[in-house]
What does this fold into?
Amino acid sequence: MCPNCRGPPAASGALDARPLSELRLSDTEFSQFRKDAPPANMYNSLVDQKSPKLKIIGFNDDTKKVLKLSNPQDEDYVEVPWSSMDSVLWIAQRLEDIIHVSLHHFFLATDDGVIFKSFGELVCTVNAFKSRDQIVLTLLAHADLPSYISSNLKTHSWWHLEPEATSSTNPLEKCKAEFHLIHPEKSKDWSAYLEQRKKAVDAFESELSEFTGEDLSAFHEHIDEGVCAALGATDLEEDEQSVLHDAVIPLIVDGSDDGWGNVSRFDVLSRIYSPTRPKSVDVYLEYHYRTRYNLKTNIPRGPRAMNGFKSLVSLGLADVPPGRRWRGIDEREWNLSAEQLEGLHGFLYGTGSDGVAEKISRVALVRLLLGSVGFVLDVAEHNGDKDEQIQVADLRWEGTDNSARWLGSNIRRICDISALEQDDHDTDNEVDEDEYDEEYSDEEDDFGGRDGCSHQ
It folds into this structure.
């Protein structure tokens, strides 16, 4: 959310329960309203006659009436120009000009149930604006919210599988029904596993509920995509992939960006539960813009234990760069050995040939460790393939793009994969293929902010 684009705070008496048709101003009244309002010219500077147009539809007969009165063709909708550089506030201001109703009196909602209340969202961060079809938003009066929420509000679920019913009191049978275990081994620890995992599920579902009426955070999307990509590279059947997906539970997801997708801080702790044994492994990532990365694994001693972590990989960044061709990586350490990886593989998936162990390669396990904390990495296993960090949800990370080949080389080394042609090159001198030939300074940008953000 752009801090400069939040909608104006509701003034005393601004939350009016009357229908929008009664709040619509005449041409003369609206002209005076605009004169009395603080200057606001930015919202029209980004669009022109060639700009794409989104469609505003009404939620009920009254909002449709307002739109019909505002449409020269007497249709019950209006079209509003928009730009990929927009905030929702600027779209609301353009709509305000068309329908002659103060934006204090209405809300906008996407067709998938996201309600914009503060209007501070940037359209580049909203999933609905990524559609290639015409964007459709719904106009709501304040009084419409309860009715809209009851049937349209967006909710989220992480799980691919639903628990099965069981009348058994046996902890293992309960776990099999709840979590769809695959060839589980016998153990007296299933009771503790059941209690701990259900608490983790409940805590995460409580966190997901905070995104009701909103898009899921881009950080959660990174984790989901990383897990799915890693499991998709295994020999697991689709239902088995679902079991392992649901066994990855983010316990802490705490991140922020600059409002334009450039990650400034990201701390995440995810737990990977075994589908065959009463075991789990914690993976922790700490990211700070131009400061440090730390990625660690842990065999937990408690629900959220932070002790016992061992460093997997660290990337340190040098001082603030002078331009796009800077060599910013100051320090890189790969700390996971082949023996440790083998131990993790056996710890999570056992060694039996009738289970999942044989279907999950060592490379896939490393990708799962990385993916569980939001690193979506493709690892080359044959000449001609490319090591690549996959961008998800328009988030951008400083320092990782230039380390994909270095990460891939270390992963191949501990997974006993023959070195590829690219491994013969000096990975300490990796250069981003997208770098410009000429030096760059952010002072040359037309707008302030990283990567040309016009909202700062």
Summary: The chain has two domains: 20-152, 171-429.
